[in-house]
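Usage

Read records sequentially. Each one opens with the input sequence:
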Amino acid sequence: MPTGLVAIISVVLSTSPAKPSHEDQCRAALASLVSTLQLERQAAKDPMLGPGFVAGVGPLFLDSCAKLSEADVACVLDKQKPEALRACEPAMKVFGAAGQRYVEQKDPGAFARYQKASMQTEAKANLRAISVGILSLLQEHPAKAAALSKAAPIPSGNCCELPGKKCSMDPKAYSGPGWKELDWRTDESLRYHYSITRTKKAGKRSIRIEARGDPACDGTSDVWELNIDEATLQSDDPHPSPR
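and closes with the structure output:
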């Protein structure tokens, strides 16, 4: 090969940008995630994360990012919108695990409490929805309210022993006494069982709706309730049962 050509090739190779190392790509992916997910702003508003979240989760993510392939890391760099990151499952799982580790280091048990609180939204939402059905029944068909005393707890079965640790609602349950009078249905799988109790004390009738379950399937019972005064047609908000 002519000496002049060798010299030209040498110059080209020496001036060509070096391929970023895997560590550099991971750092770029982390910066991209922080920007795309607006983590600085989101963490500042979330007391569980706090303003130090980005600085704390970074090293944890980089430590695990070494296990990701170049394609997995490149996927994050290619996405400019949060919803698009769903396609980057391996990298997002690593980032999610790093976030969980950071939260646990900062406040042991916090992530478990957060998960449980998230699961409890089911109970609170359904208690409100059932109460709307009951109030409508009391207003429009008060004579049918007696059937509420016969409502059996639904759904049936031990949710923690079923796939996904959730119960699927049997459509037949809605045709049972008490439930068939209500305009309440759900297509969601459930972690809680729902029951209705109608009582009379000192001449006043009230209705108690209860959500009872073990959402984390750790053997800890979690019970929420909502109460309705039949005379005033007023209800309280869903709250942990004192019973």
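Summary fields computed downstream for this record:
- The longest strand covers residues 192-201.
- The mean pLDDT is 89.
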